[in-house]
């Protein structure tokens, strides 16, 4: 069956076809005019026109028309050639199918080119909007990470911030950070973000034959589109998973991963590179944290040794700090303190008399009543102790109890004479434990108080000491004796 003739409107036809139609219509005019003139002159008989002359004139007019047509066609051909090359370029940008859809029912090169440029403009506008969104997202990421770096108390808070921020930035529903347990040759879940991940805190993945084996071997970020057949499926990760090793000194210390993208878009290579770089920086942060912890642990042990050296100067105060620390922890447990507060109490109690290293032996070992000047020197020990530990970031929570463990609720204490609610609960516990151990210990100027007499003294100081803490101490001592 013969194909049907495809009709196209004049507006949508090609430039060459338009030129041909226009020129044909225009050419009729001079030929028609000459023929009309010839007929009129012949009919009136006023002028005799030689047929050869007329044919010659007609030939010149026809030649001029055809020359003009071919000259114009040459120029239009150059225009259409330019549009054709532009169209080919646009096909590389937009795709052949998109160009075909734009040219459907239309063979006008200029119209197709205009539609193509409109499409490109729309895409550019969309890309600009996406870039603006990416810029805002990146700014948000940097701001949150910056805040985390400047305010984090420990590496765990920082790692949670990194995983949460990266998961949200990659428009994913869940993310996790695994660290390597070399003793068991496994990865264990350190940080999880997202409903599914957060509900699986005990996940362990073998290094060999595990979900991340190829990532660990290659030291490169990967997109895992499906679970390998030789790998046991994870209990919570659903491919596609974008993951990256945390490499430090050519050694993998862990793996970061995010998955379950909120949109239908796939993770691209730029996001993979961004994720890899973040994983490398996170590995450096973990290593720095470990080094800082080791340094601060060494510093704390050194300071503790100094505190013991101070106690060793005075035979009456030996073991005092350890006993106070034990009382503080027991009181804190009785009062339902958090483990973090218990740790602060314990460490502050061990170091609360550290500042006595700045007090002369003559004053520390003096038997009898101290003079006013000697008492002023002794009172400075709490400030000296705070000054020694203040430069250590990890010990900053100990500064308040150490400085203020001689303050009283009525404002009669030292060094700042604060009172009431200005004295923290942790400091009040340390104060009660310190006074109780001092009362029940031998001194050069008196014998040790019995437990009952010591509590009588604590009750007399009801305006100076927190009696709720005293009550908790009484419960603790009763439990210890039973």
Q: What characteristics describe this protein?
A:
disordered N terminus; alpha+beta; 3 domains; Beta-Lactamase; 60% helix; 482 residues; single chain; Hypothetical protein af1432; six-stranded antiparallel sheet
Topology (SSEs and partners):
Elements: H1 15-44, H2 51-94, H3 96-103, H4 109-151, H5 155-169, E1 172-181, E2 186-193, H6 195-198, E3 204-206, H7 213-218, E4 222-224, E5 241-248, E6 251-261, H8 269-313, H9 320-334, H10 339-351, H11 361-364, H12 372-379, H13 381-389, H14 399-404, H15 425-439, H16 451-460, H17 467-481
Antiparallel strand pairs: 1-2, 1-6, 2-3, 4-5, 5-6
Helix pairs in contact: 1-2, 2-3, 2-4, 4-5, 5-8, 9-10, 9-15, 9-17, 10-15
Please tell me about this protein's structure.
- The protein folds into 3 domains: 9-151; 155-285, 2-Layer Sandwich (Beta-Lactamase); 314-481, Hypothetical protein af1432 (Orthogonal Bundle).
- The protein contains 17 helices and 6 strands.
- It has helices at 15-44, 51-94, 96-103, 109-151, 155-169, 195-198, 213-218, 269-313, 320-334, 339-351, 361-364, 372-379, 381-389, 399-404, 425-439, 451-460, 467-481, and strands at residues 172-181, 186-193, 204-206, 222-224, 241-248, 251-261.
- Strands 3-2-1-6-5-4 form a 6-stranded antiparallel beta sheet.
- Strand 1 and strand 2 (186-193) form a beta hairpin.
- The model is unreliable at 1-7 (pLDDT under 50).
């Amino acid at each position: 069956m013969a194909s049907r003739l495809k009709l196209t409107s004049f507006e949508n036809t090609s430039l060459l076809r338009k030129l041909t139609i226009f020129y044909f219509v225009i050419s009729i005019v001079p030929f028609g005019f000459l023929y009309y003139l010839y007929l009129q002159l012949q009919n009136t008989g006023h002028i005799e026109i030689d047929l050869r002359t007329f044919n010659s004139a007609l030939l010149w007019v026809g030649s001029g028309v055809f020359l003009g047509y071919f000259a114009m066609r040459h120029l239009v051909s150059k225009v259409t050639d330019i549009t054709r090359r532009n169209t080919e370029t646009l096909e590389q940008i937009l795709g052949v199918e998109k160009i075909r859809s734009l040219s459907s029912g239309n063979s006008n090169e200029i119209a197709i080119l205009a539609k193509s440029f409109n499409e490109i403009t729309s895409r550019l506008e969309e890309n600009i909007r996406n870039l603006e969104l990416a810029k805002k997202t990146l700014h948000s990421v940097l701001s949150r990470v910056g805040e985390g770096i400047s305010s984090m108390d420990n590496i765990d808070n920082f790692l949670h911030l990194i995983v949460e921020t990266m998961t949200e930035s990659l428009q994913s529903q869940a993310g996790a950070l695994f660290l390597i347990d070399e003793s068991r040759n496994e990865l264990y879940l350190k940080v999880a973000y997202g409903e599914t991940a957060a509900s699986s805190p005990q996940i362990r993945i073998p290094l060999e034959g595990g979900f991340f084996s190829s990532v660990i071997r290659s030291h490169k970020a990967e997109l895992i589109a499906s679970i390998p057949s030789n790998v046991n499926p994870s209990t919570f990760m659903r491919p596609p998973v974008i993951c990256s090793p945390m490499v430090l000194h050519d050694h993998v210390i862990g793996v970061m991963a995010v998955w379950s993208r909120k949109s239908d878009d796939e993770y691209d290579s730029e996001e993979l590179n961004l994720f890899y770089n973040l994983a490398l920086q996170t590995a450096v942060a973990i290593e720095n944290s470990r080094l800082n912890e080791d340094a601060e642990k060494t510093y704390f042990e050194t300071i503790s040794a100094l505190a013991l050296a101070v106690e060793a100067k005075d035979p009456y105060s030996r073991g005092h700090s350890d006993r106070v620390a034990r009382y503080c922890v027991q009181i804190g447990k009785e009062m339902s303190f958090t483990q973090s507060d218990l740790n602060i109490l314990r460490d502050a109690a061990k170091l609360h008399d550290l500042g006595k290293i700045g007090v002369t032996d003559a004053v520390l070992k003096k038997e009898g009543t101290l003079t006013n000047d000697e008492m002023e020197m002794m009172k400075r020990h709490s400030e000296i102790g705070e000054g020694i530990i203040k430069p250590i970031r990890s010990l900053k929570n100990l500064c308040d109890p150490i400085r203020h463990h001689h303050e009283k609720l009525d404002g009669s204490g030292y060094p700042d004479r604060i009172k009431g609610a200005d004295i923290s609960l942790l400091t009040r516990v340390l104060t009660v434990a310190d006074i109780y151990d001092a009362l029940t210990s031998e001194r050069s100027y008196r014998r040790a108080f019995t437990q009952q007499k010591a509590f009588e003294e604590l009750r007399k100081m009801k305006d100076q000491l927190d009696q709720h803490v005293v009550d908790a101490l009484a419960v603790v001592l009763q439990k210890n004796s039973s």
